[in-house]
Amino acid sequence: MCLEVAPVQARECEKDSSKFVGLCMKVDNCATVCRGEGFTSARCSTFRRRCVCIKEC
């Protein structure tokens, strides 16, 4: 019997950047700040335009 196992994606945790200043308009700037805070990626929130840092939980 052969069972196929689908890859499991790690959960991601998000946190507002504590060092980003101003409105988040370009994710590149946000990602640079977040990497400096120890996160792996980032996004700009759509409504509040805040820099949100992302890493595996």
UniProtKB/TrEMBL annotation:
Gene Ontology biological process: defense response
The protein, known as: Knottins-like domain-containing protein
Pfam family membership, one: Gamma-thionin
Keyword set includes Ribosomal protein: no
Domain Knottins-like per the UniProt entry, residue ranges: 12-57
Keywords, in A-Z order: Disulfide bond
CDD domains named among the record's database cross-references: Knot1
Upper lineage: Eukaryota, Viridiplantae, Streptophyta, Embryophyta, Tracheophyta
Keyword Disulfide bond applies: yes
Annotated PROSITE patterns: GAMMA_THIONIN
SUPFAM superfamilies in UniProt: Scorpion toxin-like
